[in-house]
């Protein structure tokens, strides 16, 4: 039997992808298109336009005119609030349709996107509702004159301008919301580029945003690969800010490319996040299931903040490995529309070969393979499936413990003392997230303060709209979520006003 998703494609009714420029949908000026193949089957799912440099120019020009006109940036707070709340409602109303589109785009199972908050449509809706609440709170300050005298010293927060928002493929709902919601709340205009591996979901999200009442030109969409489309965006002189989520290599290139015009930059660049499992963990088996679930279930380890290193106290090491192996072997794969399927394939054949290469590297460097390590065959042979893979007795300096694999591979490292665990956890170039499992509240706070990571989960983990999310070290620049994300899309202006008799 051969796995196929064509019946689902027909039921959803995917249409040819188009650009959205200055309030109009169209094919753009180019003749080239991208054919997207489904990760689970290799079937052709659909095509979308590859934007040209002229299309990018048109998108940026539209966003610039819209920004300067003030139709959105100077609109009443009540107008922006109403549009953002209306959009959140539309997302919830169309949740089933959007989850189906995502399953066709990147093969994330419906069982996962319907139950795991961070990958759900509801999470995106919550982000828009949350940021709608900031629209009428973007105030500055009136300060006491420092040197005395009759004058006012004031600050104002104003939208930064035209934003280039470049999305990854793995979590389109949440990452669309984390970039678009604060930018719109602040009054910016946007040129959006979805990943070529998850375009149809984003196009439908844009259609709903237009339906919610967003003025023409406020949001423009250009589709296609990073080269040439993303490159044209990040180097465009009329773009004021770039917000990007993706690989560290591309992030570094964006910093270099933006230097010529001193663009503001927000980057979330992945991680090699540790989970520290202490001997007094409330439930070692649950800790193992939580860690392995994040590395194998749903996105199959293709998540930037997944705890792909498990640092486990030697007293509970064997117990952890036994539970981890059981969890990994319980994963199910196949049609993402099947409610019994728990995990996705890798996004494309290139990533499949990359992950298999890391697995071979782990073996060669002396780590002990506990389970997995191979490509899945049989009915799944047409897809990019890799079995959940656990390595034990890993040296923390080994390649699989230091580099982001972006696949279902967990490296387990033993430790004896708390200080050793902290040292191992911080011994990486990344610093996006970390988790720790302990029943000792004092240890939880003590270790959390020592870990060099942007988000710490204690006996569990959750991304929430009002909490800032981002990384230390080479995991990126800036934060998304909460007040910090609003500030990232604004400029701070100081105003000095002397008070004369004529003004009094």
UniProtKB/TrEMBL annotation:
Keywords: Oxidoreductase. Transmembrane segments: none annotated. The keyword RNA-binding does not apply. Residues 32-495 form the Aldehyde dehydrogenase domain. The active site is at residue 268. PANTHER family: ALDEHYDE DEHYDROGENASE-RELATED. Belongs to the aldehyde dehydrogenase family. This is Aldehyde dehydrogenase family protein. It comes from Amycolatopsis thermalba. The lineage of its organism: Bacteria, Bacillati, Actinomycetota, Actinomycetes, Pseudonocardiales.
